[in-house]
Specification:
This protein has helices spanning about 5-15, 25-45, 100-105, 165-175, 185-210, and strands at about 45-50, 65-70, 75-80, 85, 115, 120-125, 135-145. It is of the alpha+beta class and about 220 residues long. The radius of gyration is 23 Å and the shape is elongated.
Length: about 220
């Protein structure tokens, strides 16, 4: 796993600017952090389970739903879990007729919960869960790595074999910095190297980290 200082040194060597005169260290650090964020978003290689969520929205008594805040580093929600059970997603137009009235007037707990309408910061549950066990809500999501702020920091969630990709991205962005005299050919060359790393990681993620069941034809057993 490469540290921030090690990646920055590699960038300086490639740019032949080891003293960081033309491209300041602060700029190189910013590009390396941008690269980590971009790599995580494109490949979804950084995946996490949240800590238990708790309802933070006001409850509308006529339509029993609640809002839950998702973790701040969420890129995309993959799934929602309650007590080890997967909670299905739904849209308001797919709910049963008068579902809100039926659930609101019912004294019994519904047999299933649904979530939907999730955005960048919140998810919504129907109907509002009132049983004591429900606050143990977890979300599984692809995450964004935190910024590297110290020389010994490493790109969180980015597999070690792909740390070099962050160097390629940074070099490409450095060559693009000054649009009047930028070296576009070199920028494109290193961006192509970066995208090669992206494609390789995407392929590995698709093969190894999907949640779909897999079967083997009988003749191959």
């Amino acid at each position: 796993m490469l540290q921030l200082q090690q990646m920055r040194t590699r960038v300086g060597e490639i740019l032949e600017d080891s003293s960081f005169v033309q491209w300041p260290e602060a700029l190189v650090n910013q590009y390396l952090n941008d690269a980590a964020q971009d790599f995580a978003m494109r490949t979804k290689c950084y995946r996490r389970y949240s800590s238990p969520l708790s309802a933070n929205g006001s409850i509308d008594v006529s339509k029993p739903f609640a809002f839950y805040s998702v973790p701040s580093d969420t890129h995309e929600l993959e799934s929602v879990w309650v007590n080890g059970y997967h909670v299905p997603q739904a849209r308001i137009d797919r709910m049963p007729y008068q579902w809100d009235i039926e659930f609101c007037n019912s004294t019994a707990e519904p047999s299933a919960y649904l979530y939907g309408d999730f955005g960048l910061e919140v998810i919504r549950f129907w109907p509002y869960p009132s049983d004591a066990a429900f606050p143990t809500v977890y979300v599984y999501y692809t995450a964004l790595p935190p910024a590297m702020t110290t020389n010994t920091a490493t790109p969180t969630g980015i597999p070690a074999r792909y740390n070099i990709a962050l160097v390629y991205y940074t070099v490409a962005m450095c060559y693009r910095k000054n649009f009047e005299d930028a070296d576009k050919s070199k920028s494109e060359e290193f961006m192509a190297l970066y995208l090669d790393q992206i494609r390789d990681c995407q392929g590995r993620i698709a093969r190894l980290l999907n949640a779909e069941g897999m079967g083997v034809p009988y003749r191959h057993l």
